[in-house]
């Protein structure tokens, strides 16, 4: 598996320092995973393709200097790979589990990433403080799309983007989310389907342009979002 070559096919050039950071990320992730449930994927090539490469597939939607919020980042995907690849972006990670935030803050320090902040927040609470604050908000495999839209779109600046990273066959999710997207001030910009290298899976990237300000009654409390999605 040639990680640098696969990224080159995406139009991404990785230098030796960045590659070393990915190597260190892998080592720290696997070591911590022994005592904390961070990922079910641990085999070297699978981590590099299914986590690192997959995270970087949204790079083509970035210009490299945005403010980005990663909602429900888990073990740091897609935010940490993006921060390694694009040193000029400013990344904020939010996650509801404080143990994961502690891991991410240790990781950020170990990798010497000065463009990332990790915060312990629920998305619906963070949106009350940071409404319309980010150029791009992204979420990877966190929840159903119409739930994600209500959690994430209030954080996006008008004319910014919400990027949802989903698995294969996301068309039903997209169709059931059209009302939510419209209510929250968004419009689907594009839906891209892609295959990971080495037959490691199919992915769907949903890019939503926020064309108008989200009504301040959103997001609702999480129980309402989950029980009665828009």
What does this protein structure show overall?
The protein is an alpha/beta fold. The protein has helices spanning 3-9, 16-33, 44-56, 79-85, 98-110, 123-129, 145-152, 171-183, 222-227; strands at residues 67-71, 90-95, 116-120, 134-140, 156-166, 186-195, 202-210. The protein has a seven-stranded mixed sheet, sandwiched between helices. Strand 6 (186-195) and strand 7 form a beta hairpin. The termini are far apart.
Quick structural overview:
This protein has 230 residues and is an alpha/beta fold. The protein is built from nine helices and seven strands.
Descriptive tags:
alpha/beta; 230 residues
Topology:
Layout: H1 3-9, H2 16-33, H3 44-56, E1 67-71, H4 79-85, E2 90-95, H5 98-110, E3 116-120, H6 123-129, E4 134-140, H7 145-152, E5 156-166, H8 171-183, E6 186-195, E7 202-210, H9 222-227
Parallel strand pairs: 1-2, 1-4, 2-3, 4-5
Antiparallel strand pairs: 5-7, 6-7
Helix pairs in contact: 3-4, 7-8
Number of strands: 7
Q: What is the element string, with H for helices and E for strands?
A: HHHEHEHEHEHEHEEH
Q: What fraction of the residues are assigned to beta strands by DSSP?
A: 15-25%
Major sheet: arrangement of strands:
3-2-1-4-5-7-6
Determine the structural class based on helices, strands and strand pairing: alpha/beta
What's the tally of helices? 9
What is the global morphology?
A: globular
Calculate Rg over CA atoms. Answer: 17 Å
The multimeric state of the shown protein is: single chain
The helix content, as a percent range, equals 40-55%
Can you give the mean pLDDT?
Answer: 94
Main beta sheet strand tally, sense and closure: 7 strands, mixed
């Amino acid at each position: 598996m040639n990680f640098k070559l696969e990224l080159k096919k995406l139009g991404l050039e990785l230098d030796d320092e960045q590659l070393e950071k990915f190597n260190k990320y892998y080592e720290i992730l696997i070591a911590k995973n022994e005592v904390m449930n961070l990922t079910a994927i641990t085999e070297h090539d699978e981590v590099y393709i299914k986590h690192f490469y997959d995270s970087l597939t949204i790079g083509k939607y970035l210009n490299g200097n945005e403010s980005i919020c990663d909602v429900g980042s888990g073990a740091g995907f897609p935010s940490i790979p993006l921060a390694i690849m694009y040193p000029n972006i400013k990344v904020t990670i939010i996650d509801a589990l404080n143990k994961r935030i502690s891991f991410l803050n240790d990781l950020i320090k170990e990798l010497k990433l000065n463009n990332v902040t990790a915060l312990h927040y629920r998305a619906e609470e963070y949106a009350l403080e940071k409404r319309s604050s980010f150029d791009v908000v992204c979420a990877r495999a966190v929840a159903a799309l119409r739930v994600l839209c209500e959690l994430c779109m209030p954080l996006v600046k008008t004319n910014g983007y919400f990027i949802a990273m989903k698995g294969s066959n996301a068309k039903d999710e997209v169709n059931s989310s059209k009302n939510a997207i419209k209510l929250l001030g968004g419009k689907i910009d594009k839906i891209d389907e892609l295959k990971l290298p080495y037959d490691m899976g199919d992915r769907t990237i949903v890019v939503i342009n926020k064309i108008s300000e989200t009504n301040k009654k959103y997001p609702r409390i999480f129980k309402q979002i989950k029980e009665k999605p828009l």
